[in-house]
């Protein structure tokens, strides 16, 4: 059986054959070229984690002006990290085009391409919350354009990468499967919830309606597929036991589609309740029905998320010690989106329980 591979261990598989191991180091082994050559897509998980932190601080139930400005600072840092990562990635695949094909065919590294649209989605959300109120009309359509680009990339990622995994000539063993298979799929769910936030700032109700409908389609593409992958992952855990310590943090990743899926269902339900009557879409009761069903779906998904949260915490407690690596960003985004779903449920219900739990 093929062993599991951590993101850092997988980097070498995408390096170009620049030199023989016995030859002297070349210019590609020093300075900025070395950084560019070894900059894998997994680094965009940093923007995902940073982005969800800025969103959480901005939307915290028990908030304050000082937390708002901290969220703005982290948002600006996230934009800087995303732009820097994008520039380095463009340089990498321009200078070393052979790396791109090697990366696409790699069963671990290719999955991290999904972190790019998810990182961008966190920026779009904060742009709508912070920049649109400050900058006015043009910012609304700029956010809409960014979201359209993000949605297209998310669909391409969610559909193409699993197919490449199926069509790849090498055999894939169940024991080598990790929760990173969820990353390209979850990008569609993240884009769907982001679409609900973008629709809220669009002045044209018809544009907002298109955005909501497309967001429901994205939600429908991502969530069922993510649930199927989670079934395979549960089977892998039962048959082949917990992942190695180097990638044990990946057990938190199933919280991502459940937390973000529930949050997206509630936000899309809110937008449907507001937009459907304005655009005379379906019947008069359709908007409130979508809103109510969205909360029901979110509550069920939140409850299912508790199961995976228990498995994740129990797995970490069982391992006790595990090495620090880039995979630790796997803590931040899944727990972050589960917290956003919890806080959103608190804002929908006349109860402080979810507000307090989400804040904790």
From TrEMBL:
It is a multi-pass membrane protein. Residues 1-24 are annotated as: Disordered. Pfam families: SLAC1 (PF03595). Residues 1-14 have a biased composition (Polar residues). GO terms for cellular component: plasma membrane. The chain crosses the membrane at residues 42-60, 66-91, 112-135, 141-167, 179-202, 208-234, 290-314, 326-347. It is found in: Cell membrane. The keyword Cell membrane applies. The keyword Transmembrane applies. InterPro entries: SLAC1/Mae1/Ssu1/TehA, Sulfite_efflux_TDT, Voltage-dep_anion_channel_sf. GO terms for molecular function: sulfite transmembrane transporter activity. Keywords: Cell membrane, Membrane, Transmembrane, Transmembrane helix, Transport. Belongs to the tellurite-resistance/dicarboxylate transporter (TDT) family. This is Sulfite efflux pump SSU1.
């Amino acid at each position: 059986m093929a062993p599991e591979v951590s993101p850092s261990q997988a980097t070498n598989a995408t390096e170009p054959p620049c030199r023989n191991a016995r030859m002297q180091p070349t210019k590609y082994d020093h300075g900025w070229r070395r950084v560019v050559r070894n900059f894998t897509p997994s680094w965009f998980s940093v923007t995902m984690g940073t982005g969800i932190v800025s969103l959480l601080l901005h939307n915290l139930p028990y908030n304050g002006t000082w937390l708002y400005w901290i969220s703005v600072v982290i948002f600006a840092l996230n934009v800087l990290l995303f732009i820097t990562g994008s520039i380095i990635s463009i340089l990498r695949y321009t200078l070393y085009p052979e790396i791109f094909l090697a990366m696409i065919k790699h069963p671990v590294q290719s999955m991290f391409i999904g972190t790019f649209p998810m990182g961008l989605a966190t920026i779009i959300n904060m742009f709508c919350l912070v920049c649109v109120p400050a900058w006015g009309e043009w910012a609304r359509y700029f956010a809409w354009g960014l979201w359209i680009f993000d949605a297209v990339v998310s669909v391409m990622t969610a559909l193409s990468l699993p197919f490449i995994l199926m069509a790849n000539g090498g055999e894939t063993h169940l024991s080598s499967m990790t929760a990173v298979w969820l990353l390209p799929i979850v990008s569609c769910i993240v884009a769907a919830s982001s679409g609900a936030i973008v629709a809220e700032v669009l002045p044209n109700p018809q544009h907002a309606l298109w955005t909501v409908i497309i967001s429901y389609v994205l939600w429908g593409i991502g969530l069922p597929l993510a649930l199927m992958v989670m079934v395979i992952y549960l089977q892998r855990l039962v048959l082949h036991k917990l992942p190695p310590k180097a990638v044990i943090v990946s057990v938190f990743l199933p919280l991502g589609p459940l937390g973000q899926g529930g949050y997206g269902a509630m936000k899309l339900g809110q937008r449907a309740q507001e937009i459907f009557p304005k655009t005379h879409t379906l019947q008069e009761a359709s908007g409130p029905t979508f809103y109510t069903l969205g909360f029901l779906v979110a509550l069920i998904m939140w409850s299912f998320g508790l199961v995976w949260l228990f498995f994740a915490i129990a797995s970490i407690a069982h391992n006790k010690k595990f090495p620090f690596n880039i995979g630790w960003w796997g803590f931040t985004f899944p727990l972050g989106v589960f917290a956003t779903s919890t806080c959103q449920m608190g804002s929908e219900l006349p109860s402080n329980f979810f507000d307090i739990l989400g804040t904790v």
